[in-house]
Amino acid sequence: MKIVSIPYLFTFWLLSSCSTGVELLPVSKEPLLSDLNSKVWIVDQVIKNDTNYAPPINLDKDIFVFYHSGKCLYQPMRTLGETAGRKGEFSLHSDDMNLDIYFSDEKWSFILEVITEDTLLLRPKKPTDLDYTLVLTPFPEL
């Protein structure tokens, strides 16, 4: 009986000593949007009241570019190279996954949810100037 209980006690001691007194550091989620450089996301779906208002053709959709510097760009794909798009700044709060996007005349507030490795869901958070749920996917490879 003592021989069987000693390995269990040793295992318990080993596992408990590895997890006590260790301080866990929070992980920043900002690389999720920018990959520590810049990342282009296509707005694949624009949803309100369970209806998707995004155009079916990718060329007619909008894009977001998130830069590691905290800057962002929102622009219709059709106007790339023709106009400058809407420039702004963003802030992602890693602890509660709140994403705030600031343009000169608007503030868009979202709760960011990761659906899959390469799909993000942005649910509007009150108060916000944009009351649509956005589904972002990485810009497709050409």
Residue-averaged pLDDT: 86
* Termini gap: 67 Å
| Beta-strand content estimate | 35-45%
Q: At the first level of CATH, what is the class?
A: Mainly Beta
Major sheet description: 8 strands, antiparallel, barrel
CATH superfamily: Domain of unknown function DUF4822
- What's the Cα radius of gyration? 22 Å
Query: Which CATH architecture?
Result: Beta Barrel
What's the total number of strands? 9
**H/E series:** HHEEEEEEEEE
How many individual domains? 1
Summarize the amount of helix as a percent range: 10-25%
Query: What is the CATH topology assignment?
Result: Lipocalin
Give the low-confidence spans. Answer: none
What's the number of helices? 2
Broad shape: elongated
Major beta sheet, strand line-up:
1-3-4-5-6-7-8-9
What does the model show?
The chain is of the alpha+beta class and 142 residues long. It has a single domain (28-138), classed as Lipocalin. 15% of the residues lie in helices and 42% in strands. It is built from two helices and nine strands, in the order ααβββββββββ. It has helices at residues 2-19, 31-34, and strands at residues 38-48, 51-52, 62-67, 71-76, 86-93, 98-102, 107-116, 119-124, 133-138. The chain has an eight-stranded antiparallel β-barrel with strand order 1-3-4-5-6-7-8-9. It is elongated. The model has no long low-confidence stretch (mean pLDDT 86).
